[in-house]
Amino acid sequence: MSLGSHSLPPTSLTALTEAAAAITSTLDLDAVLRTIARLACRVTRGEASNVFSLNGHGGKLVLVAATGHHRDALVGRSFDSALGIPGQVVRSREPLSVTNAHDSKYFCAEVDDISAMRTSAVLAVPMVLRGHVMGVIEVVNRLDGTDFNGNDLKILQVFASLAVSAAQNARAHEDLKERFAGLRDSVAKGTPIIGGSAELRKALELCERVAPSTATVLLLGETGTGKELSARHVHNCSRRAAETFVAINCAALPETLLESELFGHEKGAFTGAHAQRRGWFELASGGTLFLDEIGDISRSTQAKLLRVLQEREIVRVGGTQATKCDVRVIAATNRNLKNMMIDGVFREDLYYRLSVFPIELPPLRERRDDISLLAEHFVEHSVKEFRIPELAVSGKTMDALKQYHWPGNIRELQNVMERAVLMSDGPTLLPCHLPPEIELISPNGEHHDHDGSTLLGQERRLIVDALKEHGWNQSGAARALGITRYHLRHRVKKYNIQKPSEES
């Protein structure tokens, strides 16, 4: 929608001018998204605002920035892209103004449940780049209690155009930094793989067995199990070790940008393609290309990737000339590609091309013998990075680490140990320096200290008392405690609270 400057009042034009200056003043993506949320709320005089990013092809709507009293409870949460008012905006690619939200067929109360906020009026517009929806900007409730009007819609549409350009610039900047880091890291091939468990040795032996060949490798495993590090290990043990290793996260880029990154593009292939550009299949010639989150690519990109694997040649976006490429492909995913293939989401022919040599990477809970080695390694690394005196890990602390189930695997362990180092105030890391959910794990794997002698124990006791008082009705108990039903459900699960009749 094209808008002339005469269609907006001077105050709105001033606000948009300030918005343009603010969101182009930094290339930090998080800062840009926070600015988008803040100024979207300001220019429309809303009570709160949300910025959703469409994560991957047909994926989730992730709430990446928000304003309002409950923004901390919202940011980072993901929602089904087909639900709610933002979901309708994604489907239709058209703005949507709702005056009585709870009467709208598109309204979903999930955000209200989390934020304990009562939504009445909503104004939502798509963030569109080259015909693809990148996200949604949503403003909730006018401060003066009135409905949003046509002028607010025009302002937010202009603002969305500014915002998507700024966000795209920030993403491009982040991608350039990642490219530089990938090329720089390909020179340093000595990154160690820590551990000696039988499960890890089995995976590494498979990596070393396939490395000398040219076979395509498919790394399977949960998030945080070290798939990129294993891919580097295959590369470093191969005849291509002296050549470039490039890692691409396929889920981090929209379909059109991912294809341009992988295969390159010709001048004029799309708006903004001012010159010919080679993709990573050409730039990594002779080396290894690691495609992480391969299960998130679209069917269109799957077809082009299949051609590369079959014909060993690429065609740039907007081009017709095929170019030969000599690249060893290592793919990785935490998704079940076999089920996706059965459901028709992932191409059967591509699956069999990728899974020539599949390697399953074990989760950390199956490598408990390696936890102490990894924890000590991360402590040593953190001590050097933070420039603090050496620290020892106490026996009880190590026992707690070994009992925890580690849903985030090695990446979560690294974050926990970095936090523990920062929390420490002596020469030893103690259980109290760990996050509460790890500190309170007993040797049998259950939470302890339910007698109310700690703050967490008291919280559990209060929740149990409220549930008993309201006949185990969670809605009533949540109101009595002054929290949302969502937060109560989370704590019930956290403390393993059950009705007396259901306890074993």
The domain tally reads: 4
**CATH superfamily of the largest domain, please?**
P-loop containing nucleotide triphosphate hydrolases
Based on helices, strands and strand pairing, what is the structural class? Answer: alpha/beta
Average pLDDT for all residues: 83
Rg, Å, rounded = 26 Å
Give the helix level as a range of percent. 40-55%
Main sheet?
A: 6 strands, antiparallel
- CATH topology call of the largest domain: Rossmann fold
Q: How many E strands?
A: 15
Name the beta content range. 15-25%
| Shape assignment | globular
- Examine the secondary-structure arrangement and name the CATH architecture of the largest domain: 3-Layer(aba) Sandwich
What distance separates the N and C termini? Answer: 62 Å
**Low-pLDDT segments:** 1-6, 442-453
> Which strand order do you get reading across the main beta sheet?
3-2-1-6-5-4
What is the tally of helical segments? Answer: 20
CATH top level of the largest domain is Alpha Beta
Structure description:
This protein has 504 residues and is of the alpha/beta class. It has 4 domains: 5-170, GAF domain (Beta-Lactamase, 2-Layer Sandwich); 186-360, Rossmann fold, CATH 3.40.50; 364-439, Helicase, Ruva Protein, domain 3, CATH 1.10.8.60; 455-502, Arc Repressor Mutant, subunit A. It contains 20 helices and 15 strands. It has helices at 10-23, 29-44, 71-74, 84-92, 110-115, 150-185, 198-210, 227-236, 255-263, 280-283, 299-311, 337-342, 348-354, 368-386, 395-403, 409-423, 436-439, 455-469, 474-481, 485-494; strands at 46-55, 60-66, 78-80, 96-98, 122-129, 132-142, 217-220, 245-249, 288-292, 313-315, 322-324, 328-333, 357-360, 392-393, 428-429. The strands form 4 sheets. Strands 3-2-1-6-5-4 form a 6-stranded antiparallel beta sheet, sandwiched between helices. Helix 2 runs antiparallel to helix 6 and helix 14 (368-386) crosses helix 15 (395-403). The longest helix is centred in the first third of the chain and has 36 residues, at 150-185. It is globular.
